[in-house]
């Protein structure tokens, strides 16, 4: 293996995972080339700036670009290690689409030479790394690929899923344990040598298929557990019981640890990845499928509860607190909070005001609704109805005296001291999928 300074790494896909990964590897002194299909992303990175918000990423990227350790391009170049970090979306039937992965592998094939290591990091259905191997074998018959017959292969191919949490990406890229699955044990060992250069957490090797399923399992575990909390919140809501108090009390049991209910599950991982498991074995995944359906249905349920509260006070202004898919980030993609707020805005028009400290303007979903963007102080002064949709710190810290007289639907449980609505004021609503 080359020294850190000699090592050439190509990272395909400069998104939420690829760009931080490229920058962290560049910080070790390696020569990193980031590849992206978007010229504007390439130009932004080459000027030392970032196109995504992530804590400390801007400083890191500007430093490694200035030192010449990170460059970006739309075109592939030879490298020692190729890391594929492109999206894996699903279609309307929840079937995974690995088209971007195969396209990236085709790009890699053009630059591949004996001795290289190819690593897939994108969340992928089980069997994808083998499909990458088969494609490379087809496109490069001059190279002996692993797992296709006797003899030492020319290249190594492995799957190593990213597991970082948005908002903590740079910390977790270094500190989290990594699961490294090789097409063969030798492939896993080659990939392990690469990750040991920048990962402080333990690096554990296995097969590519087990590593692929491990990644899907982690996010399905979280989805199932959030679904349990969301189902409880519906039952408790219909009974007029504070679900947050019930969860706090139940969690005092030494072997109970219930997650938090909310307006649904957002982001591009937990709401997507469990479907890859369901699609792989539809007849044997009733629990994982139902959890997905419960979490999706929680958004419609939240809209129904909020509408009932708003209708009970005709004409009163309503503040929706938060649009992001989770606390303290500016990411609105697949956000249940945004879906709830936009639905209320289109139904109740200019009565609805949105508070989102991470937005300068309202997203397109509000076009034509009449809703406006205001700050938290104005909301507290002017809106008798508050719908809490995101647990941003700035909302959490509003003291009781500023909200005690409000009618509040707190979908995130950020204000445990808030007076509860009487059972008679809460209309029972079915959680319909
Ligand atoms: N949520 C709840 N209740 C909870 C926890 C989360 O309603 O108790 C909601 C959040 O508000 C949000 C959604 O779930 O809408 C997802 O948020 P998250 O913080 O659980 O996860 P992500 O999507 O930001 O990141 C997840 C992480 N996976 C796990 O924790 C198992 C991260 O480590 C993965 O790297 C990431 O998915 C990914 O890229 O797969």
TrEMBL record:
Which is one Pfam family of this protein?
UDPG_MGDP_dh
Protein name per Swiss-Prot or TrEMBL? UDP-N-acetyl-D-mannosaminuronic acid dehydrogenase
| Cited SMART domains | UDPG_MGDP_dh_C (SM00984)
Q: Start and end of every UDP-glucose/GDP-mannose dehydrogenase C-terminal domain?
A: 319-417
EC numbers listed for it are: 1.1.1.336
Which UniProt keyword terms apply here?
NAD, Oxidoreductase
What GO biological process term is on the record, naming one? Answer: polysaccharide biosynthetic process
EC main group: oxidoreductase
Please list the GO terms describing molecular function: NAD binding; oxidoreductase activity, acting on the CH-CH group of donors, NAD or NADP as acceptor; UDP-N-acetyl-D-mannosamine dehydrogenase activity
Q: Which NCBIfam families match?
A: NDP-sugDHase, PRK11064.1
Q: Which InterPro entries match?
A: 6-PGluconate_DH-like_C_sf (IPR008927), NAD(P)-bd_dom_sf (IPR036291), UDP-Glc/GDP-Man (IPR017476), UDP-Glc/GDP-Man_DH_C (IPR014027), UDP-Glc/GDP-Man_DH_C_sf (IPR036220), UDP-Glc/GDP-Man_DH_dimer (IPR014026), UDP-Glc/GDP-Man_DH_N (IPR001732), UDP_ManNAc/GlcNAc_DH (IPR028359)
Q: Which domain of life is it from?
A: Bacteria
Family membership, please give it.
Belongs to the UDP-glucose/GDP-mannose dehydrogenase family.
